[in-house]
Amino acid sequence: MVENSTGIVDGSKWSEILSFGPLITEVLVGIFLYINGLMIFTFFMKEAFRTDTRYILFAHMLFVDSSLLVVTSLVALLTYYRVTIPYEACIVLNLVMMWLEFSTPLTLVAMCLERYVAVCKPLRHAAISTPRIRVVGLLLIWGLGCVPALVILLSFAALVSVKQLTMRVLCSLDALIVIEWQKYLQIAVFKFYFLLMSMVIAFTYVKVAAAARSASGKNSKSSAKGTRTVALHAIQLLLCLIQLLTPFVDMALLKISVVIYIYIRFVNFIMFVIAPRCLSSLIYGLRDQNFFQALKHYAVCGLDKKVQPAASHSRKVDLRH
Q1: Is residue 128 exposed (0-12), middle (13-18) or buried (19+ Cβ within 10 Å)?
Q2: Residue 90 burial (CB < 10 Å; 0-12/13-18/19+)?
Q3: Contacts of residue 26, Cβ cutoff 8 Å, sequence gap at least 6
Q4: How far apart are CA 56 and CA 68, in angstroms?
Q5: Exposure of 186 by Cβ count < 10 A (0-12 exposed, 13-18 middle, 19+ buried)?
Q6: To pair with 113 at 20 to 30 A between CA atoms, which of 15, 123, 296, 320?
Q7: For residue 284, what are the contacts with CB-CB under 8 A and spacing of at least 6?
Q8: Within 13 Å, how many C-alpha atoms sit on residue 129's CB side?
Q9: Is 264 within 8 Å of 14 (Cβ atoms)?
Q10: How many other β-carbons are positioned within 10 Å of the β-carbon of residue 69?
Q11: DSSP state of 2
């Protein structure tokens, strides 16, 4: 291992560490895709979940997260193994990633608003949580999510010639950044979304927390649980929004060292892509008792129902003796 004059360590040790990067990321992605797939299956198997707004939003977020994990892991593998692809394909991958990256935090905002209505305005919850409102909400999420991708696409289209699009490139997250002002435009869009979504999350948290303090009995427990859920969504949202800023850090590191760039991208992928998606299963898959019981049933292929009668029969026999 050699240390250069800038203090950056490189050499065989970096190569050994980075050689396990794709394996680790693909194993983690595979685990979370399996968990998300099992949760989506559980959602579709129970009518009570398919007609409840918060579970619909949860399933939507699982779908978006799973799609994003597939696309980002594909781009990460292409970058790591330095596989070139047509420029058009790289543009499509980047636009899809950006669309999905914004759809997740927007879904979190919608879930927080749903909890706000359920806790603070319970009498209006049934009137608001209608199939029509759900469809409008999902369309709004996808519509707002595509705006940043369209802004970057339009700025890119104004700067790139048709001849350049016929090239093969090493696809990366900054493939659509051609000149410096695009970077500042992208940062401005990200900051606007960050501010807007943070304000909504803060508003819902304050309102739900106030309702929890003023409630009593069973309502107090429900409101307190709603406060914790919104707080966890806020943490998840923060991680997702930090992920939106990591490409700019990556671009700065690329100018210093390619090895450090690849290493930091691996760390960012674990911390800001996989970790927030892990919180999704924690918030609803484990904390919600109804969903957890159904998930556990399908996870063991219904064997828990087959074991319970036998255990009950055994207890009866013991009582007779």
Answers
A1: middle
A2: buried
A3: 73, 77
A4: 18
A5: buried
A6: 296
A7: 39, 54, 55, 58, 291
A8: 22
A9: no
A10: 22
A11: E
Distance CA 250, CA 260 (A): 9
pLDDT score recorded for residue 271: 74
Burial 96-110 (b: 16+ CB within 10 A, else e): bbbbbbbbbbbbbbb
Q: 121: helix, coil or strand? A: coil
Backbone region of residue 82 per phi and psi (left: phi > 0; alpha: psi in -120 to 50; beta: other values): left
Whole-angstrom distance, CA of residue 288 vs CA of residue 271: 25
**Rounded Cα–Cα distance for residues 59 and 39 (Å):** 8
Q: Per residue in 292-320, is it b (16+ CB within 10 Å) or e — as a string?
A: eebbebebeeeeeeeeeeeeeeeeeeeee
Using one digit for the tens of pLDDT, what is the confidence trace for 204-256?
A: 888 888 887 776 555 666 667 777 777 777 777 777 767 666 666 666 666 67
Please provide the DSSP assignment of 28-66 as one string: HHHHHHHHHHHHHHHHHH-HHHHT-HHHHHHHHHHHHHH
Give the list of residues 6+ apart from residue 164 with CB closer than 8 angstroms, or none. Answer: 87
Confidence at 60, pLDDT banded by 50, 70, 90: very high
DSSP class of residue 302 equals T
Q: Enumerate the β-bridge partners of residue 84.
A: 170
Q: 């409101």: which residue's tokens?
A: 223
Q: Write the CB contacts of 84 (distance below 8 Å, at least 6 apart in sequence).
A: 168, 169, 170, 171
CA distances from 179 to 115, 155, 185, 206, 246 (A): 42, 10, 11, 41, 18
Torsion angle defined by CA atoms of residues 104, 105, 107 and 112, in that order, rounded to the nearest 10 degrees:
150
Composition of the chain by helix, strand, coil, percent to 5: 85, 5, 15
Nearest-angstrom CA–CA distance, 206 and 222:
15
